[in-house]
Write a sequence for this structure.
């Protein structure tokens, strides 16, 4: 069973009087296919946690297991391969490659793996994200929402087992954001993807299977929403 | 392959940066090419000279036909020629084609019984062994060992350049990776392996090298050629070689092997730099790279010097420069190196010049020619007239024309003797080193004398004159007694008559002159006093002029040549025993150094009045040539250093500005005026230049201190006046100012270009 297990995760920034405890002994598990929302006040450590789960940042202490494999026990190379095959990370601030156009950005993890993207699949993804007309535009030529959609496409394109999204709809209007959530939900159902979505939007949180609440780097709430909970433990 | 795609995209989308990197690589390569070409040219010329002396490795005489057979059947020679000597014996000129540890022993084994080589030296009766050529062709152990030594020595020099070169290439990559650290972080976060990241940067480096290295080789060859031409044009070749030899021996030698070595070194450097920066990016966690945050949290300094000086603009500038400490340090180091090298070159140049000048002056030879103005004791105006002739010719400048006479003191006001000096107008100021108490004209009109007191004397002589303003002297001379007069003399009178026998230099005739000693008292008026300066230094040993060393108390009285010609004294009878001779020795400089021949023929045409005593033209020409060659060399190096500095500076500063494009635009959106923006930029540049200036000052003073310590240690400080702590200061200030201007140009160019875009465009653009 593909699931995510987090054990006693701590992350501190700085030293002495500048010390910030961004994560303070966080432990929880996410079963395969569960769509979890993470909410919490600004600065509560949501992004920090997500980055660690995605293997782009190392925890100060604690462990992350995916399918019982210790993520940070791997060397840099395998960690990179882990990132490109197992995880799709959607950043709060998109983080697109400025020298690549929309389509190239979306297919990048795939190409990096030495595989050739299926043109039909590319068309489909661009269509789903409503980016077909903008496929050859550079990130600097795209609007904020369009950039966000490119970064979502990039995360979904490799069909990874885990999707981590940091406010994926932060820059979208309500219709667009509803569509994106539909898209994520569909992907979650079809591929049994484990998803963690950070959001400030109550509606989006309520559409998920489970809601985790973070405050000052600790989990202070963990509840099931009760819909679509067939995969729930 | 996506690595290739990304690498080529980066190169193409960041044109400016790619071009700068190519420039950096090309300049680094050019430098290396110049060095290697210098080495091969040096060796080539050395070989040319050795070959010119004898065009073979060895010439063996007195060969028997069997021995000749033995030689010609051996395949180890690349060239072998048979000669029949005038006496009928066989001789062979040969070139070794193969390496033998010891060619002498090899020849011995080939020609047993001939005893060509005794283990230490060659038997020069039967072999003419061109050891230099053998060594330079690297066909024996000695040659190879020496070559390794030369190259090792050369590499010590190269190590200094390595610093500069690595810095250029590193800077280029450092700048590029800094800019793209974020992008590499993103790449890593979406799953690029470290190897892939390194491959992208390396591919980029390789692509840029493919353009930069050949361009650099070409540039280096062109520059070497230009430098060689320039150095030859200084005429240095003729100092050492005859013109036809120079044309034959002195040309550029280009060694393909060394060029390949240079190219490979360059490539390795580029790849190392690329690899280094790639590894640095890889070592960070992706999120560190993306957010540009270091795990280490630095404390922000709230108060900075520039903040105090320039207010909020200064504060922002300081913060900006501190944001990337490594970049700041690289910039300052590159500026410092350039400024220090630049100023030390010019200090060295000045030193070379002054050392030569001093050497020449200490020999009293700081002029082009020494001439004799012919005259006779009866014609006190001969010198004056001769000088006028030379002046009017337009070829000469009078360097020194002094006439002098010893007088002794009539009373006790001056003990000992007095040297009266008459100076030509051209030499007057120099005699006092600018400290003349009155002008030449005033002195001429007064008809008086300036009392020059010995430096140690503290005015004692002036006091001893009692302020009378005049000094009584006795002029002693020998009056020639004619034969008639002698015949008319009484015996008692004849007792006073002395004889002097002299030989005429030209005819060799021996003649005897009879004379009587006579004297006349004269009174000279003293119109001013001055401290003795030039004579003590110039006329021989300084010790002689200390109180203890003074054999006689000599006082100088200085007057003008014009005044001298008007005095009664000039018409005194003067002959055998006076110091006023008929011939006057003067030294002159050529007004136009190249008109030497015309000047000589002018003197020839007036041989009744002047003739050449000593022509220093050739010596001065050599000195000038050497200095010119050194100057050209220094200029070339300086230009290269300046180029390095400028490329680095443009690279770093312009990327620094472009990097902050959106940030600067945001500040403008908040209401920063363009003037304020420029002000901030100027302050940033000022920080770079000032820091470099201060570090350079400290550095060069430290170097000077070390040098002086070393000189003292080697007990050379007496001979070398090298260490002058003030010398580099103005040069450093000037070159720092130049660096400041260059920094301004490097910053304002991208700023000015950015202004063409609208603010929103600028904000959106992410480089
Ligand atoms: N590199 C860093 N150095 C120091 N402190 C940091 C660093 N990154 C994050 N922090 C601190 O860690 C805490 C958690 O940050 P994080 O970005 O995870 O918050 P967040 O919950 O995502 O907030 P938001 O909803 O505003 O995005 C914050 O207090 C932040 O100041
Ligand atoms: Mg966040």
């Amino acid at each position: 069973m593909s699931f995510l297990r987090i054990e006693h995760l701590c992350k501190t920034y700085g030293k002495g009087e500048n010390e910030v405890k961004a994560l303070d002994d966080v432990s929880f598990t996410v079963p395969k296919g569960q769509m979890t929302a993470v909410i919490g006040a600004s600065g509560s450590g949501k992004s920090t946690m997500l980055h660690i789960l995605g293997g782009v940042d190392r925890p100060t202490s604690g462990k992350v297991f995916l399918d019982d494999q210790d993520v940070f026990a791997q060397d840099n190379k395998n960690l990179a391969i882990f990132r490109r095959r197992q995880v799709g990370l959607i950043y709060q601030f998109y983080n697109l490659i400025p020298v690549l156009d929309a389509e190239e950005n979306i297919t990048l993890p795939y190409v990096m793996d030495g595989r050739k993207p299926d043109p039909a699949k590319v068309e489909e993804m661009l269509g789903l994200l409503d980016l077909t007309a903008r496929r050859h535009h550079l990130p600097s030529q795209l609007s904020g929402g369009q950039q966000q959609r490119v970064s979502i496409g990039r995360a979904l394109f490799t069909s990874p087992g885990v999707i981590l999204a940091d406010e994926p709809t932060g820059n979208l209007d309500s219709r667009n954001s509803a569509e994106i959530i539909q898209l994520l939900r569909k992907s979650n159902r079809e591929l049994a993807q484990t998803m963690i979505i950070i959001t400030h939007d109550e509606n989006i949180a309520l559409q998920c299977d489970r809601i985790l609440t973070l405050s000052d780097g600790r989990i202070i709430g963990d509840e099931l929403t009760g819909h679509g909970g067939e995969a729930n433990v | 392959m996506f690595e290739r795609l990304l690498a080529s995209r980066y190169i193409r989308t960041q044109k400016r940066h790619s071009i700068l990197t190519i420039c950096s690589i090309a300049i680094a390569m050019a430098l290396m090419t110049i060095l290697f070409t210098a080495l091969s040219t040096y060796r080539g010329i050395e070989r040319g000279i050795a070959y010119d002396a004898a065009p073979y490795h060895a010439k063996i005489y007195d060969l028997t036909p069997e021995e000749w057979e033995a030689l010609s059947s051996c395949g180890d020679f690349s060239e072998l020629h048979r000669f029949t000597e005038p006496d009928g014996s066989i001789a062979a000129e040969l070139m070794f084609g193969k390496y033998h540890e010891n060619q002498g022993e090899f020849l011995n084994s080939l020609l047993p019984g001939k005893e060509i080589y005794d283990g230490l030296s060659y038997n020069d009766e039967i072999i003419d062994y061109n050891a230099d050529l053998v060594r330079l062709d690297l066909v024996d152990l000695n040659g190879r060992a020496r070559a390794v030594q030369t190259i090792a020595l050369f590499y010590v020099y190269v190590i200094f350049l390595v610093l500069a070169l690595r810095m250029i290439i590193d800077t280029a990559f450092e700048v590029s990776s800094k800019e793209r650290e974020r992008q590499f972080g993103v790449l890593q976060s979406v799953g690029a392996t470290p190897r892939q990241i390194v491959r992208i940067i390396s591919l980029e480096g390789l692509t840029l090298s493919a353009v930069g290295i050949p361009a650099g080789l070409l540039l280096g060859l062109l520059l070497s050629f230009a430098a060689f031409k320039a150095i030859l044009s200084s005429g240095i070749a003729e100092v050492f070689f005859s013109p036809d030899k120079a044309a034959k021996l002195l040309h550029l030698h280009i060694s393909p092997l060394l060029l390949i070595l240079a190219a490979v070194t360059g490539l390795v450097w580029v790849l190392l730099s690329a690899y280094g920066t790639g590894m640095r990016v890889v070592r960070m966690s992706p999120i560190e790279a993306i957010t540009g945050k270091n795990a280490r949290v630095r404390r922000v300094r709230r108060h900075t010097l520039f903040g105090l000086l320039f207010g909020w603009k200064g504060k922002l500038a300081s913060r900006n420069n501190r944001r990337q400490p490594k970049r700041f340090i690289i910039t300052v180091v590159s500026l410092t190196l350039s400024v220090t090298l630049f100023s030390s070159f010019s200090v060295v140049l000045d030193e070379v010049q002054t050392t030569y000048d001093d050497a020449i002056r200490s020999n009293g030879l700081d002029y082009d020619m020494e001439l004799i103005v012919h005259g006779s004791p009866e014609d006190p105006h001969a010198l004056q007239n001769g000088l006028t002739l030379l002046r009017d010719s337009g070829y000469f400048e009078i360097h020194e024309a002094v006439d002098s006479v010893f007088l002794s003191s009539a009373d006790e006001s001056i003990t000992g003797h007095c040297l009266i000096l008459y100076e030509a107008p051209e030499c007057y100021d120099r005699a006092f080193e600018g400290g003349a108490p009155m002008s030449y004209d005033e002195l001429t009109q007064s008809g008086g004398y300036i009392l020059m007191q010995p430096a140690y004397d503290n005015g004692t002589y002036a006091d001893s004159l009692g302020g009378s303003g005049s000094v009584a002297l006795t002029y002693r001379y020998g009056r020639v007694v004619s034969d008639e007069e002698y015949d008319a003399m009484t015996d008692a009178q004849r007792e006073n008559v002395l004889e002097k026998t002299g030989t005429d230099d030209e005819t060799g005739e021996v003649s005897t002159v009879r004379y009587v000693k006579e004297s006349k008292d004269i009174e000279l008026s003293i119109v001013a006093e001055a401290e003795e300066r030039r004579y003590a230094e110039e006329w021989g040993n300084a010790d002689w002029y200390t109180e203890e060393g003074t054999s006689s108390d000599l006082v100088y009285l200085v007057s003008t040549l014009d005044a001298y010609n008007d005095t009664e004294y000039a018409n005194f009878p003067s002959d055998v025993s006076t110091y006023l001779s008929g011939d006057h020795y003067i030294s002159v400089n050529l007004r136009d150094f190249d008109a030497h021949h015309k000047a000589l023929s002018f003197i020839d045409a007036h041989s009744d009045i002047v003739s050449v005593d000593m022509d220093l033209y050739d010596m001065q020409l050599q000195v000038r040539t050497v200095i010119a060659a050194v100057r050209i060399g220094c200029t070339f190096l300086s230009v290269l250093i300046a180029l390095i500095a400028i490329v680095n500076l443009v690279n770093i500063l312009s990327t620094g500005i472009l990097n902050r494009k959106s940030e600067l635009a945001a500040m403008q959106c908040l209401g920063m005026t363009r003037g304020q923006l420029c002000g901030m930029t100027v302050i940033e540049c000022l920080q770079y230049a000032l820091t470099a200036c201060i570090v350079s000052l400290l550095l060069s003073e430290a170097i000077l201190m070390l040098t002086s310590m070393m000189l003292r240690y080697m007990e050379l400080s007496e001979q070398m006046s090298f260490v002058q702590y003030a010398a580099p200061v103005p040069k450093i200030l000037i070159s720092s100012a130049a660096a400041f201007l260059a920094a301004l140009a490097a910053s304002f160019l991208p700023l000015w270009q950015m202004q063409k875009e609208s603010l929103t465009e600028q904000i959106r653009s992410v480089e």
Chain A has a mean pLDDT of 86. The radius of gyration of chain A is 17 Å.
